[in-house]
């Protein structure tokens, strides 16, 4: 079966101009005399240069029926330009696009709406643009209005709608026109949280019905929730495509280097203040080797070295674990009671505190470590991303996943929990 979307060697070039000389006031006055050729010959005008920018460059990929594909990348990577090319809002410099089905686009809030028309009139106007007959729109009209939640303002001109109201109506129309292909570019972020969830649920239902969705977003949680496949763009080209989790991990670690150790050998340069300073943070495996890569089944330890320069009645040493989406997974505090001092009191000196992470706790992905050292009144040290680790998944049946062969759902932790199972014959089953 041929793909619903087929992209071959797609490129889009824009030409931008640069003015290499800014005009001063005297130059502006001089330009008033441009109509005099003799004066023009003596006047130096700003030099104009032009530069070609490839917003999209030599992109090729296929999307099949029922797939939800996320398009991710940094600002300026070419995501929106790609969707505009596919929706034929703009035309490519070169390359080919094959679309086998009706396309509905949500690229900007209220795209395709006429500001002077009412919400009711715009529903019919948009439906006709997408090739629907009036009776088809009538059939879906009540459902669209209920989904958009703008029934009170249905006969009000669109120009008086807030951006959120326009987005609600635009999504409702596009999603209920039953397109084979739906293109969405970040507009869901305009709505409130409840409506965002509603839109995502609708988009998920669209893919379950066998239709195809291309979704652009900077929200990696949304991409992972909605899309089974993802494409990562950078500088107008594809640098990775494949399973969403793997592509998202690649994007989130672009420009970052994994680090299993961070050391400040000179106390004067170390993070902290005149009371406490951080000397080092290290990740050790079970054999005492410094590492930045672990498997979900590996126990490891985070060791913190620090100087206490003055006696303290109380000091909390804590490690914060963040996932690649920036979400705090958990915090652990050094509450050692069998320390030489018996409590959290710290005499002046040099200390090592070690936090032990058991196996089968964290899920796979990148882990960002933040270290804080605080007393009852002051934050002496707060060092974020001091160590960056990668937790891999060897997919070993002896691990938490057992014989589960599918991609593990994105989660903050993956603990090994105790399970019990009992077996009964069918005759013993409840009646």
Description:
This protein has 431 residues and is of the alpha/beta class. 22% of the residues lie in helices and 32% in strands. Helix 5 crosses helix 6. The longest helix has 16 residues.
Name the strands of the widest sheet in spatial order. Answer: 5-6-7-3-8-9
Low-confidence stretches: none
| Main sheet: strands, sense, barrel | 6 strands, mixed
Number of DSSP strand runs = 18
Task: Throw out a few tags for this protein.
five-stranded mixed beta sheet; 32% strand
Topology:
Elements: E1 5-19, H1 25-31, H2 37-42, E2 48-63, E3 68-72, H3 79-86, E4 94-99, E5 103-106, H4 119-129, H5 134-148, H6 163-176, E6 181-185, H7 193-208, E7 212-216, H8 220-226, E8 229-234, E9 237-243, H9 244-252, E10 261-263, E11 276-284, E12 293-295, E13 300-308, E14 316-322, E15 328-333, E16 349-357, E17 365-374, E18 379-392
Parallel strand pairs: 3-7, 3-8, 5-6, 6-7, 12-18
Antiparallel strand pairs: 1-2, 1-4, 8-9, 10-11, 11-13, 13-16, 14-15, 14-17, 17-18
Helix pairs in contact: 5-6
Give a quick summary of the entry:
With 431 residues, the protein is α/β, with parallel strands linked by helices. Helix content is 22%, strand content 32%. The chain contains 9 helices and 18 strands.
């Amino acid at each position: 079966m041929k793909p619903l979307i087929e992209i071959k060697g797609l490129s889009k070039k824009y030409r931008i101009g640069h003015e290499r000389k800014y005009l001063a006031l005297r130059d502006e006055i001089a330009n008033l005399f441009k109509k005099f050729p003799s004066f023009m010959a003596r006047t130096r005008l700003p030099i104009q240069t032009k530069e070609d920018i490839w917003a999209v460059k030599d992109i090729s990929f296929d999307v099949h029926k029922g797939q939800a594909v996320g398009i991710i990348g940094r600002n300026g990577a070419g995501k929106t330009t790609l969707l505009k090319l596919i929706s034929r809002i703009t035309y490519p410099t070169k390359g080919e696009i094959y679309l086998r089905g009706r396309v509905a686009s949500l690229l900007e809030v209220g795209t395709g709406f006429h500001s002077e028309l009412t919400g009711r009139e715009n529903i019919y106007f948009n439906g006709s643009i997408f090739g629907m007959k009036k009776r088809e729109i009538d059939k879906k009209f009540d459902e669209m209005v209920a989904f958009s939640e703008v029934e009170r303002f249905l006969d009000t001109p669109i120009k008086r709608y807030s951006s959120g109201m326009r987005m609600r109506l635009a999504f409702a129309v596009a999603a209920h026109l039953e397109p084979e292909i739906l293109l969405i570019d970040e507009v869901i972020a305009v709505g409130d949280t409840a409506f965002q969830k509603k839109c995502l649920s609708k988009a998920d239902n669209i893919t379950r019905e066998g239709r195809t969705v291309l979704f652009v977003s900077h929200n990696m949680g949304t991409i992972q929730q909605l899309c089974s496949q993802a494409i990562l763009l950078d500088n107008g080209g594809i640098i990775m495509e494949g399973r969403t989790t793997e592509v998202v991990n690649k994007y989130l670690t672009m420009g970052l280097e994994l680090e299993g150790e961070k050391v400040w050998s000179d106390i004067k340069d170390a993070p902290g203040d005149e009371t406490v300073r951080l000397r080092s943070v290290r990740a050790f495996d079970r054999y005492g080797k410094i590492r930045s890569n672990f498997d979900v089944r590996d126990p490891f330890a985070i060791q913190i070295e620090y100087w206490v320069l003055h006696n303290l009645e109380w000091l909390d040493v804590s490690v914060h674990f963040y996932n690649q989406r920036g979400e705090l997974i958990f915090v652990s505090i050094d509450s050692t009671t069998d320390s030489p001092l018996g409590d959290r009191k710290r005499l002046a000196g040099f200390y090592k505190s070690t936090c032990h992470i058991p196996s089968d706790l964290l899920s796979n992905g990148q882990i960002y470590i933040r270290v804080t050292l605080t007393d009852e009144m002051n934050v002496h040290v707060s060092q974020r991303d001091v160590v960056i680790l990668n937790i891999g998944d060897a997919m070993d049946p002896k691990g938490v996943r057992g014989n589960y062969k599918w991609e593990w759902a994105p989660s903050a932790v993956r603990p090994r929990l105790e399970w019990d199972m009992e077996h009964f014959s069918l005759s013993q089953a409840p009646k």
